[in-house]
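> call design_seq(struct)
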């Protein structure tokens, strides 16, 4: 039984895409022979930074480096399903080639849990025509149908409506959910479910939570006390009405990893993500501070005075300074020329950068066109060769038939 989940987290930043790719390719969760990349990938080595760079290159090639950056799917199988990691990889590749045709996709099988699951991270920009990836709510049902069809074709178990993997009936009030949208739909149908309330509280508390202590504190704010004792296998949650929910119940009902190990992994992942974002932010601040020091040094040059440069510095600060980042010499010259000459220089630099980018895109597009033409030419030549061979074979068969008929009829009288 395969469950195909679409992860509905924020996907509109480079940092989120980089972190997601790093997670699915992380050492210890997968192996190199369980990783496959669909679409253009000019590197021999597979690591998250190179995959991230190839995704960015494709976005910039088509001028669509904004908005939604990627899609993240997880196909997971029941722990009792008879499927190998290699078969799971083949399943993920086949699904990506059908559903995400024309889009770069990283397929990675993880085997660090008691069940096999496959991650798919897909670039939001097509490498064939530059179109953006769009999935509607109706597509979720189509994804389910395609996944079930692929399971049947491979002799795998297909989830029955309202039934568990072993065929037993799901009890009233029990729900299998992943996203908040599914949860809200469930809440409209089943009222007063404290189990569902507990699951939502856990999901909310896990956001940006980096330790067990902070998690317990957040759960308390949502009205749930947490009984997390190291010597005990399970975690127990209790609301203000005294109703208790065990972590294993949440795992079984919602297919979420709410075990001690699963929560610790989430804490570590959140910590690494926050730390990486802080380092990137600090680096940007240091770079900006260095730029301001250069501006200040330029303002104190001959005939200039720092007090007279306040308005100019404010203008530079408010402009994001893309030209200064690309052409580092401009910031110094900005205080040595008159405003008209400075603006002309900035405009010249922008035009040069724009022309360079257009030339790079055209070159990449031309290369792809040439490759497609070569493939088409080779295909056409092969087709002509096959047709010629077929014609020759038909002529040979016709000759042989005429000879047989001649021998049967004997010599003419």
């Amino acid at each position: 039984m395969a469950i195909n989940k679409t992860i509905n987290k924020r996907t509109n930043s480079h940092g989120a895409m980089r972190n997601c790719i790093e997670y699915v390719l992380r050492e210890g969760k997968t192996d190199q022979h369980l990783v496959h990349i669909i679409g253009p990938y000019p590197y021999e080595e597979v690591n998250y930074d190179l995959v991230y760079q190839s995704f960015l290159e494709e976005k910039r090639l088509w001028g669509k480096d904004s908005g939604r950056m990627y899609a993240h799917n997880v196909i997971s199988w029941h722990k009792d399903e008879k499927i190998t990691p290699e078969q799971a990889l083949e399943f993920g590749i086949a699904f990506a080639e059908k559903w995400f045709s024309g889009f770069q996709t990283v397929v990675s099988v993880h085997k660090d849990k008691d069940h096999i699951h496959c991650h798919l991270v897909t670039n939001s920009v097509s490498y064939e025509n530059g179109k953006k990836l769009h999935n509607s709510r109706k597509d979720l049902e189509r994804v389910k149908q395609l996944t079930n069809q692929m399971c049947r074709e491979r002799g795998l178990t297909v989830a029955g409506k309202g039934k568990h993997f072993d065929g037993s009936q799901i009890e009233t009030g029990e729900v299998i959910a992943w996203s908040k949208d599914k949860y809200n739909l469930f809440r409209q149908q089943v009222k007063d479910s404290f189990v569902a309330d507990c699951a939502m509280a856990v999901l909310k508390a896990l956001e940006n939570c980096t330790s067990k202590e902070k998690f317990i504190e957040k759960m308390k704010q949502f009205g749930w006390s947490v009984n997390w004792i190291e010597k005990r296998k399970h975690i127990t949650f209790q609301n203000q009405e005294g109703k208790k929910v065990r972590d294993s119940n949440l795992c079984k009902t919602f297919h979420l990893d709410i075990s001690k190990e699963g929560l610790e992994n989430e804490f570590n992942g959140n910590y690494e993500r926050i730390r990486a974002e802080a380092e990137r932010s600090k680096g940007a601040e240091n770079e900006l501070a260095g730029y301001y020091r250069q501006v200040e040094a330029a303002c104190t040059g001959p005939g200039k005075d720092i007090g007279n440069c306040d308005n100019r510095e404010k203008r530079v600060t408010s402009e994001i300074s893309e030209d200064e980042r690309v052409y580092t010499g401009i910031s110094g010259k900005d205080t040595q020329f008159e405003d008209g000459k400075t603006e002309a220089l900035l405009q010249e630099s922008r035009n040069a950068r724009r022309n360079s980018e257009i030339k790079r895109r055209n070159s990449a597009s031309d290369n792809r066109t040439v490759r497609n033409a070569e493939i088409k030419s080779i295909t056409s030549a092969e087709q002509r060769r096959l047709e010629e061979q077929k014609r020759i074979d038909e002529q040979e068969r016709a000759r042989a038939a005429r000879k047989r008929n001649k021998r049967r009829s004997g010599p003419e009288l």
